[in-house]
Amino acid sequence: MSMPLTMKTYKDFIEDIQESSLSRIKSKSDKGGIATMSASRGDKSAKENRERAKQLDKDIRGKGLPGATKVTGSYVEKDDKTGKETKVKERSHVVTSGKMGKRKFKKTVKTLGKKYGQDSVLTQTKKTGTLSATRKGGLGKSKNIKLGKFKPQGKNPEGQSQIKGKTFTYG
């Protein structure tokens, strides 16, 4: 007697992949020692931003951290001179602390954020995420902004990330 084979549809297959990628990031955030950062800037060309993203990957591994998970982020950049706000889509990197201590991890992530001229980096070393300024005025007058807990499927007009069609944010 043969067992009937059940075939997954392509849509089911893609949804499984989407869920596993997001759930992996969620489980890493539950442990703490996770950060999201980018090398992209709104005033750079797409080609320049791609090259900067590749270099950031190398720098992350060069600092002794595990390779990053690539996500698509959106972030509101503010022009210091005009005050004009622009929503920028960017290639973001989700990094875990690996074997690195949480304090050193946070410092390392902030150093990389500074190197790439970022306004801020998002780190989570406890239960909640924090946005830390990595350049003067990057977060207005604030040095740090507490963001709240990791929210899978969450959306936020200020900034959110997306992996394989699924969004996540903090709030």
Q: How would you describe this protein?
A:
This protein is an alpha+beta fold and 171 residues long. The chain contains 3 helices and 9 strands. A 9-stranded antiparallel β-sheet has the order 6-5-4-1-3-2-8-9-7, sandwiched between helices. A hairpin with a 4-residue loop joins strand 4 and strand 5 (129-133). The longest helix is centred in the first third of the chain and has 22 residues, at 10-31. The radius of gyration is 17 Å and the shape is globular. The N and C termini lie far apart (54 Å). Residues 1-11 and 13-20 have low confidence and may be disordered.
How is this structure best summarized?
With 171 residues, the protein is an alpha+beta fold. It has helices at residues 10-31, 46-62, 102-115; strands at residues 34-38, 69-78, 85-96, 120-124, 129-133, 144-148, 150-152, 159-163, 166-170.
